[in-house]
Specification:
The protein has about 375 residues and is mainly β. Helix content is about 0%, strand content about 50%. It is built from one helix and 22 strands.
């Protein structure tokens, strides 16, 4: 499955509508075999919807996108969209998936849950989206730091949807997601321009898994760990039993080596091992990709298996554009339900914008499938 956004420009080169997410699903298990079934999801005729994220949930594809003004480039609103999944899987002539959508406020920034594992969810399980509220900046009226949940109820006949909000019963450990005053350029880089911390949203993915007797959801976002704009990875393992979410584990991973760690992506294998992959950079460290992990019975709040390197950066980005690596994603192989796959960005050598994509895989001890 592939997705890419598309949008128009005005005479000044500013991003405007119409704005789309283009989605393609391979007709068979061989992506270079029998071709692809494609569809476009139209966000807006006049507003540019950026930062699209996609989740697979039962009979639905779930999309989220942030609407930005073409002139001030500030968030205006968000859209959550649902597409019927089966027509794209069938890929028959004239079989077009129906769509449903709703518009919400700019914050919290929603991320769709995406399913791992072999246990399916049914129609009674409405698609799940999740975000966070930080009492430091992004939602001044919010109570103390919290995670927020929503269920999306579609009406495909009308093309609309309703967001049913829910809150987490447990307390979230306090955090400060306001790095560098919300500025784009915050992460230190050796001999290069600073990079965007992107601390105002959950990172890709919101990985959902159904175990016997409980559901699990793992999340990450970037926080200020010392009040001095040093970035660390906040991670959560949530469990749902009897219809209510609770925090099974949470922690902030930030070893005291002076480096920033940010842009985390988390997932859980069939045995409940949790892995978190993230970017790392510092005054003496080229932007690189590392990971840390824990087993189900490890001490709470700790990624006890320690830190390893997946991609060692060989240089920096000389372009002053501060974005780097935030579309990285950690997933679990559906064939063995144990192998983690990560796709991420790195620089083999210093250049203006000649970054490369690395695909790596690893397993954690204790997953015998």
């Amino acid at each position: 499955m592939l997705t890419q956004f598309a949008f128009g420009h005005d005479a000044q080169g500013r991003n405007i509508g119409p704005s789309y997410s283009c989605i393609a699903v391979s007709r068979t298990a061989d992506p270079v075999g029998a071709g692809w079934c494609v569809v476009d999801f139209k966000w807006s005729e006049s507003i540019f919807y950026d930062y699209p994220k996609l989740g697979v949930w039962g009979d639905y594809y779930v999309l989220t996108g942030i609407g930005f003004g073409a002139v001030d480039k500030k968030p205006r609103d968000q859209q959550i969209g649902l597409l019927e999944r089966q027509p794209l899987l069938d890929c028959e002539a004239g079989s077009t998936p129906r769509a449903a959508r709703l518009t919400t406020d700019p914050y919290p920034i929603w991320l769709p849950a995406d399913i791992d594992g072999r246990t399916a969810v049914g129609l009674e399980d409405l698609p799940l989206v999740v975000g966070f509220a930080d009492d430091h900046e992004y939602d001044p009226a919010a109570p103390p730091d919290k995670l927020v949940f929503g269920r999306v109820r579609p009406d495909f006949d009308r093309g609309t949807a309703v967001l049913e909000l829910d809150a987490l019963d447990d307390e979230v450990a306090p955090f400060d997601s306001n790095l560098c005053g919300g500025g784009f350029y915050c992460i230190p880089v050796d001999f290069g321009f600073k990079l965007d911390a992107l601390p105002d949203r959950l990172m890709n993915r919101a990985a959902f898994r159904r175990f016997d007797g409980s559901d699990a959801l793992v999340l990450t976002h970037t926080v200020d760990v010392d009040g001095r704009d040093r970035a660390g990875v906040r991670w959560y393992e949530l469990r749902r039993e009897d219809g209510r979410w609770r925090i099974a584990n949470q922690g902030t991973f930030a070893p005291s080596d002076g480096n920033a760690r940010w842009l985390g992506s988390a997932a859980m294998d069939a045995e409940g091992n949790l892995a978190v992959v993230y970017a790392v950079s510092g005054p003496d460290t080229y932007p690189s990709v590392r990971y840390a992990a824990r087993r189900p019975g490890d001490p709470p709040g700790k990624l006890s298996l320690g830190e390893g390197t997946l991609i060692e950066g060989g240089g920096v980005q000389l372009s002053p554009f501060g974005r780097w690596g935030d579309y990285g994603s950690l997933t679990v192989d559906p064939l063995d339900d144990c192998t983690f796959w990560y796709t991420g960005q790195y620089y083999p050598s210093t250049s203006l914008e000649s970054w490369a994509t690395k695909v790596v895989r690893f397993r954690l001890p204790g997953c015998p499938a």
